[in-house]
Fold this protein.
Amino acid sequence: MTNLIDIENLGKRYDDFSLTGVNLAVEPGCVVGFIGSNGAGKTTTLKAALGLIAPDEGTVRLFGQAVTPGSSALDDLKSRIGVVLDTCAFPSTCRVGDAGLIGRAAYATWDASHFSRLLSTFGLSPKKKVSELSRGMGMKLTLAFALAHHPELLVLDEATAGLDPIARDEVLDILRDFVAEGDRGILMSTHITSDLEKIADEIVCVDNGAIVFTSPKDVITDEAGVARCRAAEVETLLASGVVAPGAAHVMRHDYGTDVLVPDRFAVARAFPDLVVDKATIEDYMTLTLKGESR
Amino acid sequence: MKTMIVSDFAALRSALLQLVGICLVVSLFMSYVMGAVGTSAAIGAMIPFMCLFSLAALDEQNGWERFRLTLPITRRQVVFGRYASVAIATVLAFVFSLALSFALLAVMGLLPAAWVPESLAPAENPPAAIVGATAGSVGIVMIAMVVALPLIMRFGMTKAARIVPLVVVIVIAGCVSFFDADYLFANGLVSDLVAWLDTGSNYLVAAGATLAAVAILYIASAFLSAKLYEGREF
C-alpha cells in the first residue's frame, strides 16, 4: 500500500539553520510521533511536507505523488489532509461558526453536520468569537476543522499543547478512532511525549536538523530500559558484553548514572541487583541526545 | 479564490458593521462642513483602506496566513482572492457612500430651506460632482492599494508598514519633480481642468475614465503580487 507521506533525504538551508538528510514515512493505519527539542527542525520538516516551503534537496511525496510547492496538483493533495498547527489560526474577529463557512468553501468533501457534532463534542458554541477562546478551546476548534472534511492524513504540530489532561485524553480517543479505519494515518509533532506513549506506532526524533533515531514505539517503551547505576557499576555493565558497543547512552547526574540500554530484560537477567526501569519516550530521547554514546 | 473571499469577509464582518455605524454618525458632522460631495468622497476612500489594512493585520495574527496555505488553495488564488475581496469592499464602499450622500440630500430637501446649512444646499451638491468626487477619491485610494498590496503580499504587514511610506514618498517626490506645479498653475492647466469638469457631464466622464484606468493598474498589480507571493516563505 502507498505511504501517506514519504520524505527522502530532505534538505533545507537557512542562514542560521540547516535541515539535512531527513527521511520519514507515514504508513496507512500508523501514528508517527515526531519529537525533538525546540528548533530541531520539526516544523521545517512539516512545512516541507505540506508544500509550504520548497526543499533545497530531497523529495516529498504525499499519497505517492511528488509535492511541488505552488502547483495546482498540490491542492488536490492538500484536500486530503487535515492540519493542526501550534495555535488556533483563525482570525480573531471570526466566530467559531465562520470556520465552518471557510471549510465549506475550501473543501469539496466538507461535512457540515460532522463539524457541528465535533463542535458539540468539544463544547464549542458556534456563536463564540475566536478571540474569546482559551488556547485549549482554540486547539479543539482547529482539530474539529481538520477532521470535518474526512481527511486521510492528519498532520498535527503541538495539537494537544494547552489542553488539560482530560481534554487531551478526549482528543487522543478521537485520533485513535481516526486511524482505526486502517487506511488513514497521523504525523504528530509534539513535546508531550506521554501522548505518544498512548497513541503512536513509531517515533522519529530530529535534532539539529538531522534525524537521530527512528524506532517503533514498542521498542522504546517495552524493550529499552534505563539502568540506574552507581559510578562503579557503569563500567562493569558496559564491559559485560550484554550491551553492544555504541548501543548504550550514559548520563551522569548528582545522585548516580543513568544508562539507556536497548534490552532491559537482558540487563536485568545479567545484573539482578541493578534497578532497570522501563524507558519512557522522554528518557529515550533525553539520553540519546544528551547522553554519552558507549 | 472563493475560500479567500469567504474567509476575508468572515474576518471583516464585525469590523464592517461597526464601520457602517461610525460612517453614519461621522457623515452627519462632515457633511455640515464639507457638504455631501466631500462626505461621499471621504467615506468612499476610508472604508476600502481600512479593510485592506485590517485584512493584512489579521493575516499575521496567530499564523493565519501560514495555516491558510495548508488549505487546498494555491498561492495565486490567495493573491487574486485578496484583490477580489478588496475590490468588492471598494465597490460596496463606493455604493454606500453615494447612497449615504444622496439620502442625506433627500432628507435635507424635506426640511425648510432656512434650516439647511449652506454646505448642503442642492446648488452646492450636484449629483455629477458627488459621483465624480467619490470616484476620484476611490481612484486615489486604489492607486495607493496598487502600490501597497504587492509590498504587503511580499513582506507581510509588519515589514510593509515600514516600506510602504518610503515607496509612497519616493513616488510623490517623483511626481512633483516630473509635474512642475508652478508651471501647471501658471499656464492655467489646472483651472482649465476644473472648467472642463464643470461642463456638462464631464464629472461622470472623468469618473468613468479614472476608475477604468485604475482598474487596469489594479489588475496589473494583482499579477505582480502573485509573482512576488510565489517566492515568499512561511
